[in-house]
Amino acid sequence: MAFLSIKNLTKKYDGNTVLDSISLDIEKGSFLSLLGPSGCGKTTTLRLLAGFEKCDGGIIEVNGNIINDIPVYSRNFGMVFQSYALFPHMTVEQNIAYGLEQRKMSKKDIKEEVAKAIEMVRLAGYEKRRPKQLSGGQQQRVALARALVIKPDLLLLDESLSALDKKLRVEMQVELRQIQKKIGITTIFVTHDQEEALTLSDRIAVMKAGKIIQIGTPEEIYETPKDTFVASFLGQANFFKGSIAEKQDNIYALRLKNDGVMRFVSEKNIQPGQLSAITVRPEKIEVSRQAKELSLKGTVLFVTYVGDTSIYRVDSMGQEVIVQRQNTGNAEKYDIGDEVYLSWEPENSLVLEWDGEE
Ligand SMILES: Nc1ncnc2c1ncn2[C@@H]1O[C@H](COP(=O)(O)OP(=O)(O)OP(=O)(O)O)[C@@H](O)[C@H]1O
Ligand SMILES: [Mg+2]
Hints:
The chain is built from 9 helices and 20 strands. It folds into 2 domains: 229 residues, Rossmann fold (3-Layer(aba) Sandwich); 118 residues, CATH 2.40.50.140. By secondary structure, it is an alpha+beta fold. Bound molecules: adenosine-5'-triphosphate and magnesium ion (MG). The site of adenosine-5'-triphosphate (ATP) has 12 residues, from helix 1. Keywords: ATP-binding, Cell membrane, Membrane, Nucleotide-binding, Translocase, Transport.
């Protein structure tokens, strides 16, 4: 049985449905990210889980027990908010001790537990400082220690790292994941940063407009996105959108919007007329000066050198196609204006659902 189970959770504000019957399970000790654009309902989901808001439908279960009516303080969940909201007049130590004092723990035990928490987030030596005397990353650690010190059954983190600069954020990601694994705490992490979700998570739930579109491991979500939204939200993707015009064995013809016809191989059984988006990641496309079977002819529009790779923008089939090539020593280079042919292994392209919209 899953540790936490959300079933058909629904939330409305002023008649607007903000969460539309979302369901998900999370195993004990695992790390799940909620990933999605601004306003899709991530914070709302956390607030419902924490008990700060009541839902308009659905249930939340912990170990098989419905907790919908259990008040915030009895749920034993730790939460770090989007703005981490430390108490400004209290020292690091006092901030971390707060939750334990609320629980009426003895002074001696509080001292011990706070010291352990400070050790864990590597803040020894900072005990007597106040939040404004700390850097963003240090404040972040205090917030994390404050949430962890109560030994919560579930840790809820809302965009906790997004206020930090890139380098510190990456360091904190590693640290957070190490702490999470060490103490084996079940964690739900909200982010709109795809890289962060890919790095940290056991599983990712991709949300859009109050719905969960897909749940899976980082690899599943990246390699087999369910639709064009998920594919473009996680990493870059090229889409060739159109309707299936004909099929011969496993070779299909796709009629694009501009009436161009593109032929591709798929082992899927796709019906003629079906609206589809042939999806290829930039790093899966090969470039050559020679035509191959089913390759796409194009012209290099722009080349960007990014150290380990080069990014080519190629005009092909009436659209811009992005190609990413490793800069290995013997990789052929192409210049603006060069005529090239693009191809990929059939298993490196996906035929995704396309709703006909841009
Ligand atoms: N208290 C509230 N009253 C009315 N509408 C609300 C309230 N809280 C959130 N909303 C609306 O619910 C929707 C989801 O908000 P939510 O804060 O969950 O988004 P989010 O995914 O966390 O976005 P962000 O990435 O910007 O933090 C938004 O359209 C928001 O305007
Ligand atoms: Mg939010």
